[in-house]
Design a protein that fits this description.
The complex is a heterodimer of chains A (about 325) and B (about 300).
Chain A: H1 6-33, H2 50-57, H3 59-92, H4 97-109, H5 112-122, H6 129-136, H7 141-146, H8 160-166, H9 181-206, H10 210-218, H11 224-235, H12 237-252, H13 256-261, H14 273-283, H15 287-314
Helix pairs in contact in A: 1-15, 2-3, 2-15, 3-9, 3-12, 4-9, 9-12, 12-15, 14-15
Chain B: H1 6-35, H2 38-42, E1 55-56, H3 58-62, E2 71-72, H4 74-85, H5 88-119, H6 125-135, H7 144-153, H8 160-164, H9 171-182, H10 186-194, H11 199-210, H12 212-228, H13 231-236, H14 246-255, H15 262-282, H16 284-292
Antiparallel strand pairs in B: 1-2
Helix pairs in contact in B: 1-15, 4-15, 5-9, 5-12, 6-9, 10-11, 12-16, 14-15, 15-16
Classes of the chains: A mainly alpha (about 325), B mainly alpha (about 300).
Chain lengths: ~325, ~300
Amino acid sequence: MHHSKAHIWFVWPAIILMIVILILPIFLAGGISFTNYNLGNSSFEWVGMENYEKMFSRKTYIKMIISTATYVLIVVPVSVVLGLVAAIMLNSLRFGADIYKTIFFLPVMATLLAMAIAWEFTLHPTLGIINSFLANGCGGIREFILGFHWLPWVSSEDSWYSVACANNMDFPYWLKDKKTAIWTICFIGVWQAFGFNMVLYLAGLTSIPRELYHAAEMDGAQSTWEQFKLVTWPMLGPTTLFVVTITTIRSFQVFDTIEILTKGGPAKTTYVMMYAIFEKAIQQNITSIGAAITVVFIIFIILLTFFQRYVIEKRVHY
Amino acid sequence: MLARHYIGESWKHGLLIIGALIVLIPFYMMVSMSLKSQQEIQSISGGLVGAQEIQTFPVCTKHGYTEEVCTMRPYKYNFWFAFKKAPIPRYLMNGLIVTISIFLIQVLIALPCSYALAKLRFKGREFVFSMVLFCLLIPVHAIALPLYVMLAKAGLVDTYAALIIPWTISVFGIFLMRQFFMTVPDELIDAARMDGMGEYSIVWKVMLPVAIPALLAFAIFSVVAHWNDYFWPRIVITGNRDLFTPPLGIREFRGGIDSDEFGPMMASIVTVTIPLIVAFIVAQKRFVEGITMTGMK
């Protein structure tokens, strides 16, 4: 065996950086969260659980937890399912799959901040092409399809589309209306995330041996759906677990779209955690509350990862 | 994969085309706005490129340029005026400086460490590796606030150092390289030692060349993430425009100067966004590989 002290020089820089940059800040956030410290103050006092009590009693922070949870609970399942559906469809195509793949992956690559501004104009009530597209469709096929008139229980006068057409083109204000803002933000989140999931699923699909499908067919699984249930879905278990975890962690960190498009509003309906940390601690310089939110945030993420590890050990069949 | 019929193909294309169109809407809007005149933008007319009539731009003359200088086609004006209004090359330069420094330092720290973890035996190796695994759980954005407090206390806010320091350690990079080095045969390293090479030269002259494919994927992952990052620069760069990275530059366009004139604003956004998108389209395979590498176990 080789004897040298080289490893000390190889490993120590990394260890020191891990401690200073990644581990120490967690304890620092923990410490600050029990004080009333603000950046720039020369002194501080210990205040015990006060910051956490505020966080779980004040309306603002309750709304913060609701908007964060809404965002995560919408974006994760929708972008994972869309990613899976897109991957399965692309995988079964005889031609053209590469073009769709490139297009669906574009939002993952493009600077999200720039795209948020592009969406802002796209969804703008007077300048945007979405509302002008809707307004031009009044009385036509667009109204029929997007107004859900094809559903038996939707009457063609009361659909949201027809009502808007009748009321002088009163289409939603998307990001400015507290009824629609969070859903619009979620939509942009899905738009951005599903291409990433799709690519991971495509990689997962190529690793499923073809023989399994033949075997399933011989066992009587004839329909596509049955084969999906019997082979594809279980074989993609590890991929799904990974995709769900990474999408969840990323969704918890949504910030760019919020800061550009809504600033947490209207009426705090899009006041997500990262934006709260930014607004409270950086803009308003209330460091202690920001630290408390940070601690809760880290606990969420660590719990999530332990949950993932637990599922890996218990449930996923390889 | 599944046995399919020809007929099944067309409805899939139909759905995928609708999906692709929805995905492309904001890109269309962005490019279109960067080419058209203010009137065309406001009246939502002119399709993708507008009529491109030569005209004199009032905002331009208001800024003290002669009428002659301010008379041109809209697309030209938008991009010309964007570059006049803001130091776009500077922003792009800062983006390059920051992303390249981050990547180089990450490799400088991670490569020897992952080599040691994969190929050297020493006391505490398992402990160091479990530390790496633990640190993989911590997203740097989540601990941005305490990091900011530390940097502020060190007087580093509004410096390049603040933009770079938190990203110097990539535990993901260490993990990735370690997995990669595990597959390198020990004979290669033993042969190098027989030739009288020290451990340092082994890392940089033997392991580095071997690791190029993995490094390339990691480079793409790292550069894309930090080129696009907005949250961290937003926190540590408070006012010094000389240090603005591309996303900070974009934000300034939107918020401040001439926000009543959308063409030049979008032109600047397109300019800043385009390099990465072009690079992606050219080297698509490598990009997808690099970015989804986080998906490897």
